[in-house]
Amino acid sequence: MKIHEYQAKEILRKYSVPVPGGEMATTLEQADTAAKSLFGAGNKVVVVKAQIHAGGRGKGGGVKLARTLEEANAASKAILGMQLVTHQTGPAGQKVQRLLIEEGSAIERELYLGLVLDRASAKVVFMASQSGGMEIEEVAHATPELIYKEYIDPAVGFAPYQARKLAFKLGLKTTQINDAVKFMTGLYKAFVETDSTLMEINPFITTKDDKLLALDCKINFDDNAMFRHKDLKELRDLAEEDPLEVEASKFALNYIKLDGTIACMVNGAGLAMATMDIIQYAGGSAANFLDVGGGANQEQIENAFGILLSDPNVKAIFINIFGGILRVDVLAQGVVNAAKKLGVKIPIILRLEGTNVEEGRKILADSGLNFQVGQTMKEAADLAVAAAKGGK
Q1: 200 catalytic residue (yes or no)
Q2: 1-20+106-241 falls under which CATH superfamily?
Q3: Is 283 annotated as belonging to a binding site?
């Protein structure tokens, strides 16, 4: 689960991690009030920042500096409601429905801090780089040696000596080291206690009066841990997510929308990835990732069909099931019921293997519906690609 920058900074404040002062606004009136308050407090610069779940906002025109109230109001008017396009939103962009009106900072240096779970080592890794303000992926690709890492033993936690090592590698002044240790320790505590999967401070800045601030913050949470964090779950902004993905989450379906024409329904994430690959290999393109899981029931299957059919780009449906926990006959009956109930008109191609596979194939054959069944994944993928192209 993703959250906005202003929400992430509120979390950091609770862990004594210093961030600039600011207020969120959803209307121009609120933005004007916030800007007046910041200028009235003696700030010479106010920053107006678009709040969307994507990076690259500044390059897309979603971050503007203002030195007067008039400039701040003009920036708010330009950004609020705009369709902001960045490298992470895709060409359609994302509508800006919230702003963060924030005090300006006298930046001396821009650095980078980040925490992420490293699956290879099964540990959280704390990363730091002097290349703040840049896309960390670009830094990792071009100059990986400029990213410093400290792996954290989960039984011990993030030790002060590790924070000091990172602080010295960042080239911080000796007078800033102790503050940096407190800053990083607060970040790690926030990461662990909120069940985060990613926490990035980019840029992590030093100011001309030697202060340390999180100028920007990105936090992603583990969806599977949200039952422990009802307060965090309430931070979810459904307007920032694809409507079909939101709908799928209501039925415990793992769905991600893509831009292809062949809808996929698969049980198991690994098989789902393989299915998308073989569709691409056969000359087609997947319209989604959809894992119905091992314990799917008929209701979930029907709901999954409804979600797949809601995508106007879908020209064919490819169902690839290896029945283990989810028996093939249960899946087949669910498919038949859903196809009849929803009046499915587009071609449905299936590849079925596993428990009760013969019973499942008989259910399909006796349904009176025009299903196509491939004996192998390749055969089924070829059928799906041909169907999506109009049988050519």
Answers
A1: yes
A2: ATP-grasp fold, B domain (3.30.470.20)
A3: no
Q: Do residues 200 and 129 lie in contact, with contact meaning Cβ atoms separated by under 8 Å?
A: no
Nearest CA to 150 out of 168, 172, 174 is that of 168
Going from the C-alpha of 76 to that of each of 23, 67, 79, 147, the distances in angstroms are 13, 13, 5, 35
| Active-site residue identified among 6, 112, 188, 255 | 112
Record the pTM: 0.78
Share of the chain above pLDDT 70, in %: 98
Catalytic annotation, pick one of 150, 200, 240, 302: 200
Instruction: Provide mean pLDDT across the span 6-10.
Output: 97
Higher pLDDT, 53 or 138: 53
Give the tokens for residue 254. 């793992």
Grade residue 392 by pLDDT with cuts at 50, 70 and 90: very low
Assign domain 242-388 one CATH number from 3.30.450.40, 3.20.20.220, 3.40.50.261, 3.40.50.300.
Answer: 3.40.50.261
Close Cβ partners of 120 (under 8 Å, ≥ 6 residues apart): none
> Is 102 annotated as ligand-binding?
yes
- CA–CA dist 331, 384 (Å, integer): 19
Q: Any residues with CB less than 8 A from the CB of 282 and at least 6 apart, and which?
A: 378, 381, 382, 384, 385
Taking 90 as the threshold, does the pLDDT of residue 370 lie above it? no
Q: Residue 100: is its pLDDT beyond 90?
A: yes
Per-residue pLDDT, 391? 53
Work out whether strand 107-118 and strand 123-129 pair parallel, antiparallel, or are unpaired: antiparallel
Cβ burial, residue 392 (10 Å; 0-12/13-18/19+):
exposed
